Amino acid sequence: MTNEPQEKPILHIEGLNKYFDDLHILKSLTTTIHKGEVVAIMGPSGSGKSTFIRCINRIEEPTSGQIFFGDIEVTGPDNNISNIRRDIGMVFQNFALFPHLTALENIMLAPTKVKKKSKADAKETALALLKRVGLEDKASSYPEQLSGGQQQRVAIARSLAMDPKILLFDEPTSALDPEMVREVLDVMVSLAKDGMTMIVVSHEINFIKEASSRVLVLVDGEIIEDGPSNQVIENPSHQRTKEFLGKIL
Amino acid sequence: MDGAFDIDEIRYIFFNMQVMEGQWGLLFSGLWMTVKIAVVAIIASTALGLLVSILRLKGNAFTNALLIGYLEFCRATPIVVALIVVYFGLPFLNITFSPFQSAVIVIVFVHAAYIGEAFRSGILAINIAQSEAAQSLGLTQLQTYRYILVPQAFRIVLPTLSNQWTGIIKDTSICTILAITELLKAAQIVAAWKANPTPLVMSTLLYLLILIPLTIFTMKLERKAGLKK
Ligand SMILES: Nc1ncnc2c1ncn2[C@@H]1O[C@H](COP(=O)(O)OP(=O)(O)OP(=O)(O)O)[C@@H](O)[C@H]1O
Ligand SMILES: [Mg+2]
What we know:
The complex is a heterodimer. Helices cover 36% and strands 24% of the residues of chain A. Chain A has helices spanning 49-56, 81-85, 103-113, 119-132, 148-160, 178-193, 205-211, 229-234, 239-248; strands spanning 11-20, 23-33, 38-42, 64-69, 72-73, 88-91, 166-170, 197-201, 214-219, 222-228. By secondary structure, chain B is an all-alpha fold. Chain B has one domain (23-224): Orthogonal Bundle (MetI-like fold). Chain B contains ten helices and no strands.
């Protein structure tokens, strides 16, 4: 690997295990992610991709192991997890916008309530973000008045409003009708080009080729492949990866 | 016997405006007392109900057992009995409340149990993804309740809530057993004094003066909530 050794990784995961009852879902995962990397996570259904990404901000509680976010140990018992989560954005498969708030209010909520920004400040940022995701005319729409693709773009803007150091995506386009996938991927590609650090669970091969620098393949709770996107996709080292890629390509 | 169904006789007995002459003042002051009890009780029982629901959702086995006991107690006890215990019973422990306080305490105590159950099921009906999204943005649990779960639960339970609020207004009539002249008591006083039930009939119409605006208010809320769903 060609990591500059002087730069501290943005995320370091060491021996992460997750059990659901007796089921061993994540098996001692260890990996390191640096600033500006766009890491795609692929793998068959049930392999633990969602569980893995949800453990990073402890929406899912890891059973054991350590997660370091910069200098902070996310898994440290004395850390205030809410404070840590401010800097780790998350985008969900089903958008999870707040249905009782407008698009603008969805984006302004956390900056005003969590970061105690002024309403005026937060509104200015929120409008700029809506513009960035191409929805400046939807500020006062409620989620149910938006298409899936539009909702997901608002959800991305909502995460960006907290100015996160890293963004986690769990299959952000898999709940969308095919004609809406592109508009969401375009936003993600532009974020990647701007240098945003991202971990993206996705099987969108075009996005991976276009925007991601690295692919992890997760099978049965283990990372069986970790390398540059081209190499993993064109020339995987594992038979399981070949089978799996054969199905989705 | 045609006399029993004579329209004039019915009017004389139940809609006798002569009986009401000079008595409206007492009825309206009774109405005002009913409104005061109801407004305080509605606000307090809704707030307490919300607290109960969150305690139920976040509590441990001990608080849960306690709160289930509380709910079952309210289900099993006639509200008049509860009022008698508070107003006539507690003074034996040197705990004394005014009639107004006793009425409010009992109504709030009983209705908060039901409202708490309603809020609990409302919050449980909200997709877990809503909490996860809120917490992934850095909201604390308390903030998640305050800004995400409770506002959505309100919209879900509004029809139930509106029933409870109506029930509270009706339950203010238990005050007739106390030295407190709310609407029904005022009507009873006049009816006894005039030996004619017309004031009681008029009091039912005056209850509508409160219930109709309340219904309009909750319908407006529901329409607004529907828009924001
Ligand atoms: N809350 C839970 N309780 C019990 N088992 C769970 C829970 N969440 C996930 N699992 C199990 O953990 C395993 C991994 O699930 P996970 O959702 O992480 O897989 P995934 O790779 O994201 O799959 P998909 O591609 O279908 O989204 C699955 O076998 C799933 O059934
Ligand atoms: Mg998943």
